[in-house]
Fold this sequence. Notes:
This protein has 328 residues and is of the alpha+beta class. The chain has 2 domains: 2-14 and 55-218, no CATH class; 27-48 and 220-322, Cathepsin B, Chain A. Helix content is 43%, strand content 16%. It has 12 helices and 8 strands. The strands form 2 sheets. The protein has a 6-stranded antiparallel sheet, with helices on both faces. The chain has a two-stranded antiparallel ribbon with strand order 1-2. Helix 2 (40-51) packs parallel to helix 10, helix 3 (54-69) packs parallel to helix 6 and helix 5 (111-123) packs parallel to helix 9 (209-219).
Amino acid sequence: MNGVKNSLLLYELMLVAFIAGCHRTDSDYATDSGLKVKDTVIRANVIILSRRFDSVIHVRQLKALDVLSKEDTTAASPFWPGVSVRLFYDNVRRNILFPDKINQGRSTNFCSYAAMTHLLIKYHPDLYIHYILSLYHNGEVSLKKKTLIPSLAVRQAAGILNNKGDLDVLHADQLWFLTLADQFKGYINILNLNYDPGDESTIWAGTNYAKFNRMLADFTDDELTSRGSDILKPFVSNLFDYISSELRKGVVVLYLNSKYLYPTKYSLVTLQAPTHFVVAYNMYKIGDMIEFQYWDYGLRTQQLITSKRLQQLIFGVTTITRITDEAN
Length: 328
């Protein structure tokens, strides 16, 4: 019994780090370095990979917009009393057209759900439109491998979250993120399993690495590989070489310690714990430095980091090695 209690105390310490890492202020945003790329071969390989799906994605996007155009955008859902019909449909359309703009909002722990949703809409907009409309109209949705039935507390909270930045008016994202946090659970959530007002900013909404990979697997039939964990980092001889090679194979999500990604002079101690998920788009060397390009908080960002900082950053590397053509 004492061992269980000690484990719970360890989890609590990790969760404190997680909550601090998932929240982000305006001063944390990285800016474009403005440097010219020298390693054009690596960059070209990644660009070719990212463009491989462009024509397929465009067809899926048009299909999703066609489904949306046939919706009665004046009919409110009885399952989501706080959700504005106009704001819901405006949000869904915006997501389909601009998946890079998906944003967790201010002062929430929705970072993992935003990263997963960014990937889902970018590569499977036709699946997204099916899922989000089913959830809105029916109060539940069947995924590839799981059925989501959000609690009454979550359904009553969606649409009334405020002081969350852009998320205040993104009602589709509110009901979507709240549902994901409510229905997917990991050990990180064991101290707070049921939603209460304000829990979008607590460990109730937190995500550990295995839970994130499980979400990716449950939403599509895409093939995944992963290395790393919440405690042990990927066991590879050269992390830069490994991530670069994974970027040539598919879409890469990195599980990392955001305090090393966005260091601040106000941090006296940086806890050695992963707290955040970003989607990597490119990584190459400029002299002794590494230029890292990635999606995070609704933005494409790039910054220069050292090899040492890269090692400190990364706890998990998940690669979507095959994006399927199957749709519901």
